[in-house]
Predict the 3D structure of the following.
Amino acid sequence: MRIGIDVGGTHTDAVLLDGRDVAASTKALTTADVLTGITNALDTVIADAGVPQTDIEAVMIGTTQFTNAVVERRELSQVAAVRVGLPSGTGLPPMVDWPDDIADALGRHSYMVKGGSLYDGWPLAAMDDGQIDAAIADIAAKGLKNVAVSAVFSPMNAAPERAVAEKIRAAIPDARITCSYTMGRLGLMERENAALLNASLLAFADRVVDAFMEAIRVRGLTCPMYVSQNDGTLMNVDFVRQFPALTFSSGPTNSLRGACRLTGLTDAIVVDIGGTTSDIGVLEGGFPRESNVVISVGGVRTNFRMPDIMAVGLGGGSLVSADGSVIGPRSVGHRLVTESKVFGGDTLTATDLIVAAGHADIGDKSKLLNLNPVTVTTGNSTIHQMLDDAIDMMKPNADPVPVILVGGGAVLVSGDLKAASALHRPENAGVANAIGAAIAQIGGESERLVSYSTLPRDEAIKKVTDEATSRALEAGADAATIRVADIEETAIPYMDEGNTRVRVKVIGDIAALNAKETV
Amino acid sequence: MQVRAEDIADLSLGAVFLATGGGGDPHVPELICREALETFGPVELLASDDLRDDAHIVTIGGVGAPTVSLEMLPSVDDAARTLEAYEKHIGRKVDAVVSFEIGGANSLIPIVAAAGRGVPVVDGDGMGRALPEAQMMTYAISGVCPSPAVAYDYAGNITTFTTPDTPTYERHIRSLAMASGGMITTAEHPMTGAELKPAIIPGTVSFSITLGRVLRENRGRADQLLPVLRDTFASSVYGECRLLYCGKVSDKATRIIGGYDIGEATLTPFADEGDALTINIKNEFLVARLAGRVVATVPDLIVIVDYETGAPINAERLRYGQRVAVFAVGCPDFFRTERSLAAVAPSAFGFDIPYVPLEQIDT
């Protein structure tokens, strides 16, 4: 049995899964200290399921704490940014386009040194040991312990970043270093930004992981703990301590993965309707479709692999215009239970519309007797029109596609959606995200620049797949269940024919768990 | 008139509109341009008519693969160093610099060079929009010799050219750009004031700032934007502005062929009933057909904007499901001559259709 916990900005959800069955679930408000909410959730699902602690084989946690730390500029450490790329980019130092408040939070410690590569591997400039040593001496003198290292074209040649990281480690043994090539794709500024945000979260990651482990220990659980990352796979605790930024966007990912498990559909549109927004994502082969554009996290441009999510300003608390033709994006949010008409307040919300139309039984319907029936009819059709338009924008093509409704606001959809070939409202849809966390698997990824002219395509892909597989095994995946989740081949422009960047992602079940479940 | 740091966001937005789907991501060029203007102060914008006939003007901009600059960033002083190298090569100071094309990053590079070297920028450019090849520039069409020309790369390597015609120059500069990491800055196609005046699309820098401001201040639904845009284009070198279509993207397929993003997009009405609009793409939006009937072609401008906000969308960002509006704008008169059309009519892009000016096509 395993427990999945999803810590959101508003709610902390948890489920206890017995094989494929939901044995217990809970939804409670997220507490200011986060931890009390988690321990309460653990207590509730263990008590409700009536199982001994020893039956719990793993706890999986999805958390928005790291995203929120960046957005709210809290808990961020000062970071030294070292970029290997001069003479290119002179005058455009790291953090040049960041909002002032977050650049200040990281301390604006920028260092630029010579080196890096051109697109074809030709050295951009010879590295200058004296220049690098001077930068490191300054970092040491300032007492900075967190460092982000970036280099031009490092996804294709990581050697310059590695060389600088080694020098830093030799001079400052307790330095914690994030190299940009481990974080993102091509696009120097965005990849460097991802590394900087990650490095600034390292100290906070230690505190969060320690607290999670303590919560689990106090509850008498001795099982391993995992944290979900943005691609729908799990990180063990050592990995989270190194790459906390990989948790960004894990909430929507878990919700999509949970919807997949609840319905058995691997290709579908998932609409997660909350109090303020409807988050629309796409399941492709059981995993979220990834966004291919620059994504801003707290005002900082990054190129993480994140799920492609469209947020529409429509939720249970969304404000409704007097004639029902305009809904949202403003919302009463969690004040729905005091401010909406159905709860005796003065504000007309989307929830009031569906109660008045008889589609849901929430609050006191008698408070809505004065509501104009035309407003109710118009408002309900506005809700469906907004979702139809948004779903249509997210569809990969004009073919019909099933739609899965999850989240507390799913009751807003009372009729058919034209954009959907079929509508699914699975049981336990309110805790889809916690289920998504609980069922996550272990992933392994490898990326290489290969030449199909010297190594045939089949052999090249097999070689990269083997590397990804051995990484997944190292991380604790069950060899028998490992399968290829994604192969990405990118021809490198302006290079000799056949030069291709190959990235392979494999996924497998947790070995420790499979061994027990099959017994 | 001056160009100030605070004008750059509007200039860039206007330039993305005029880029008709091409031009790339303006984020880094905008950063550099603002940085240069904040460091050196505003740049003087000179009307082409005010140039002395014997003034020496050089065009300046970037050549190569813009996607490379997302990884190997340009330097803030590349443009000024290029101009400095050019002046050293020809043994005199220039009187002003001017842009290759107003659409995209090359609208900003001359301003960066001018700020760094303390010279004015001519208000105008060599395309009035974005076009994929150097021989489509008004300067080349007018017979301006591409050299003397100087190229300056990321490491400060300087190459000079003595080349008689633009196609040869284009071939050489493109291979040099590849050897220099994919992108290079050049000063080329020098002109006297007398040569420049008939060869330029005038007023496009100040117009781009105005257009960007209009788009920003009237952010909203495309049909409500139309009257404002009509008024804006009415007092410009451009012709009539039409709203061709509102609908959603029901198909888009492009692929890279010979370095160009080539393909087609299909738009259908919001209500699913009515005629479809198809648009041919080669980096830029080139031909629009409504139910098979041609309703606008290059060199007239075809622009796709987000239906709700009026924000222009470039071709690589266009994708299935987007709700968009399509505007068409008559090109400057320069392109309507036989000599110009030989370089920029649909046939120059491989389309077997004649050019009919936008205002002569029935709506």
Observations:
- The mean pLDDT of chain B is 93.
